[in-house]
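Below is one protein, fold included:
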Amino acid sequence: MANDAGGRMKVVIYYAVWATLCAAAAGVAISFIHTWFFSYNPGRSWVVHTLVFDLVAAVLLAAGQGAVALVTGSLLAQLGRGLQQTVLLGLLVGAFDFVMDFVQMAAPATELGWVPDLLIFAAATITITALGSRASAA
């Protein structure tokens, strides 16, 4: 029984790292798209400033989503639910990030602010993680 719980926790940890990497990749892609196509940059220094600011924000958001995935997965593992298809779940987290960020970048009226964005990202990560769990065989 303890070995099964340890195995579930290993999967949760690997999933949290994978979800973080997928979210970071989506954020990096959006950062480059935003810098080159959607932002006004009067000079080279502003291009670097915009890109670095966007990259830092993307990595911080990805780290936060990884933490949410880890906590959610840990709670599910303690309840006896194991994560299934974790590669797909991580890709879904990254795809959600990319789509949400792109829509907010392309249509600025959809930008809600940092607090609602963080809540939406957390809710999406919790939902994706919970939907990817299955009750373990007894």
In short: The mean pLDDT is 89.
